[in-house]
Design a protein that fits this description.
The complex is a heterodimer of chains A (about 130) and B (about 280).
Chain A: H1 6-17, E1 22-26, E2 31-34, H2 36-42, H3 46-49, H4 54-57, E3 63-64, H5 77-84, E4 88-95, E5 101-113, E6 117-127
Antiparallel strand pairs in A: 1-2, 1-6, 3-4, 4-5, 5-6
Chain B: E1 2-7, E2 28-33, E3 36-40, E4 59-63, E5 87-93, H1 100-105, E6 123-129, E7 132-136, E8 139-145, E9 153-158, E10 163-167, H2 189-192, E11 197-201, H3 206-211, H4 220-229, E12 234-238, H5 246-259, E13 265-268, E14 274-276
Parallel strand pairs in B: 3-4, 4-5, 5-6, 10-11, 11-12, 12-13
Antiparallel strand pairs in B: 1-2, 1-14, 2-3, 7-8, 8-9, 9-10
The chains are: A alpha+beta (about 130), B alpha/beta (about 280).
């Protein structure tokens, strides 16, 4: 299989150095890399799973609003980024692996390589604390 | 395919008795087959390409990996540019905003150079490449961006018989884990895969690389590892550091040969070297 574009490779190298969870997808939304902090959210190790098709990894998260209502995938930042090639940010809740509802903020951005090539997307998960 | 090395020094021309063996001219390689000629990069070694015989159809193709000064400083002194009979094609990496013409003009214009590009007497045609594939005479050329500051590509050149890969400025080990074991995540891997000859950046010792991580270059050990993973048949290490004398480079090569047992042949690229692939 062909090697990834360097814009994708450099995003992975950056993610490797960060202490915040980072998910990298290809243009179709397949999860091609997630870093160590992201492993805690997914409950899986990248070394074990490798890449994951969008149909599998998208079902791991259960995004809900603060009242517990299930959010439509179309409202999620990464899905919107993949659809529109634009950055998005949203605060919402996910059901953690132990069933607890946790509030998070997600920033997503498209990987737009030279010259204007859409190559994939990145989602950063930020822990939030109610103030 | 005939390959002639005109310059393999990195960063800045380094002439003098201490660099005579490996050469002090910056990056420039000639490639020829069936009367067609390619010139890879336009470093100061390009002046020595002026002895080229007139190519087929009066056409010459210059392939620029990137526009750092040590890869273009010879352009202004390359005779075919000043020959109205010549058709010169320049292939260079596309940038995010400015055209190749605009970026080359930064150098080929006053005050850095006395003429403007538009004043060059030859017929000049510019081509922007990214992840591209194109044909020049008998050569099928592939280009891809590689890790190096600013838009930078490597080239894979196939004449139908042999494959020559040229990645003179490249840092595939950038990141906390160095070169990863999964080929899909290695910059430049597809360009180098199974090449008969790879000329690759090997500017630093391992100790120097630790001090200069992110500068866009490779250690000799990383160049060897990259070549090994790509299963090349021969590696010539290039872009020699301007502070590395012939004596020191020789010592480094001896030490590398003693320490490594790779199945492929490796050596230091040397100005004036001619390789028949």
């Amino acid at each position: 299989m062909a090697a990834y574009e360097i814009e994708i490779i450099l995003n992975r190298q950056l993610a490797d150095c960060l202490s915040i969870p980072v998910f990298i997808t290809d243009r179709e939304g397949n999860l091609i890399y997630y870093n160590e902090p992201a492993e805690q959210i997914l409950g899986k190790r990248y070394d074990d799973t490798g890449e994951m098709p969008v149909s599998i990894w998208a079902t791991i998260f259960k995004p809900v609003d603060e009242k517990g209502n299930v959010l439509s995938p179309d409202d999620l930042p990464l899905v919107k980024t993949l659809k529109n090639c634009k950055p998005y940010h949203k605060t919402f809740c996910i059901e953690s692996l132990n069933g607890k509802i946790e509030k998070i903020a997600v920033t997503s951005y498209p990987i737009l390589g030279r010259p204007s090539r859409f190559l994939g997307a990145v989602a950063l998960f930020w822990e939030t604390k109610d103030e | 395919m005939k390959i002639t090395i005109r310059g393999v020094r990195g960063s800045i021309p380094t002439s003098g008795p201490a660099t005579q063996k490996y050469g002090g001219n910056t990056s420039c390689i000639e490639v020829s087959a069936e009367g067609w000629q390619l010139v890879l990069d336009g470093g100061s070694g390009m002046r020595n390409s002026n002895t080229l015989e007139r190519p087929l159809n009066n056409r010459l193709d210059i392939l620029l990996t990137h526009l750092h000064m040590d890869h273009i400083q010879g352009l202004g002194f390359f005779k075919p540019f000043f020959d109205p009979e010549m058709e010169v094609h320049i292939w260079g990496p596309a940038g995010s905003r400015k055209s190749l013409h605009a970026r080359l003009s930064k150098y080929l214009s006053p005050p850095l150079f006395p003429m403007y590009i538009r004043e060059l007497p030859c017929k000049l045609i510019l081509h922007e490449v990214d992840k591209s594939e194109f044909e020049i005479g008998p050569f099928r050329v592939q280009s891809q961006y590689v890790i190096h500051p600013g838009p930078t590509v490597g080239f894979r050149i196939n004449d139908g018989k042999r494959i020559f890969t040229y990645i003179p400025d490249h840092e595939p080990a950038l990141g906390i884990h160095g070169i990863v074991s999964d080929q899909k995540w290695i910059s430049g891997f597809d360009l180098a895969s199974n090449a008969d000859l790879l000329i690759h950046d090997a500017q630093y010792t391992t100790a120097e690389y630790k001090e200069r991580t992110g500068w866009g270059h490779s250690s000799m050990d990383d160049a060897l590892r990259f070549a090994s993973m790509a299963c090349v048949k021969k590696l010539l290490m290039a872009h020699h550091d301007p502070n590395h004398t012939d004596t020191y480079l020789g010592e480094l090569l001896t030490e590398l040969k003693m320490r490594n047992n790779y199945s492929f042949h490796f050596d230091l690229a040397e100005e004036g070297m001619v390789i028949e692939l």
